[in-house]
Amino acid sequence: MKKKPLPLYKRVANKIKEDIIYSGLSKDDLIPTEAKLAYKYQVSRVTIRRAIKLLEDENLLYSVQGSGTYIKNNKIEYDILSLQSFTAEMIEKNTNFFNEILDFHLIEPSKNIQDILGLNSGEKTFFVKRLRYINDEPSILEESHLPADLFPELSIDIMKNSLYEHINSKGLGINYVQAELKPIMSNKSLIHHLKLEHNVPILLMEVHSTFDDDTIFEYTKIHFNPFKYSFKFRSTSDI
Predict the structure, then answer these.
(1) Is 127 within the bounds of a domain?
(2) Exposed, middle or buried by CB within 10 Å (0-12, 13-18, 19+), for 142?
(3) pLDDT in tens, 146-159
(4) If you compute the radius of gyration of the chain from its CA atoms, what whole number of angstroms results?
(5) pTM over 0.85
(6) Which of 22, 90, 127, 192 could, after both became Cys, cross-link 97 (CB 3.0–4.6 A)?
(7) 3-state helix/strand/coil string of 15-84
(8) DSSP summary character for residue 158
(9) Do 82 and 62 share a domain, yes or no?
(10) What's the half-sphere exposure (Cβ side, CA atoms, 13 Å) at 9?
(11) How confident is the model at residue 60 (pLDDT cuts 50, 70, 90)?
């Protein structure tokens, strides 16, 4: 059955969301006026008003009479330099969350994954696909490889809770987390799981983590919903 095209005002709302991401606007920043948006997208001001109303209903924008329309910050801030677990972070922020395990099985990983984790041919990993919900909304999709020899006891219940807390309970210390952050275009799987309306750019973080003895225990791809997450960097100066 052929899908009906989205109404014009919804397509314009999606474009406004994309432009907000690309422009780097943040909480309480003013967006362009109705007239400027109508000119930019070559639509009527009525269509712009409907698009803005939709984004207000989604808690992405708010309007101040006589002043304009502003960005409402409903994103979770992610401290990229922190070793804090997702679970600890959400508890600290007093935020409702839960994890859904989409896939959990033992596999022989690809040569690339073997090289990243320092595994020999034939050594296996647990592959875990985990969808993290924040305030009942899908916000993060993770795909993890964990060496089976390091975690023979690993289970769905452990991954539904906190891997890092489980590691701490075993008396193991985490030395460092190395991450690479890059933009990618969402695919059908990401659109489905993160409930995106269409193909939009998202941020992918590739992570590998080590124990205190420098053993790499994790390789994870983390896909962030661009409308639910923002990033912060905090460093101290020795000056």
Answers:
(1) yes
(2) buried
(3) 999 999 999 999 99
(4) 21
(5) no
(6) 90
(7) HHHHHHHHHCCCCCCECCCHHHHHHHHCCCHHHHHHHHHHHHHCCCEEEECCCEEEECCCCEEEECCCCC
(8) H
(9) no
(10) 12
(11) confident
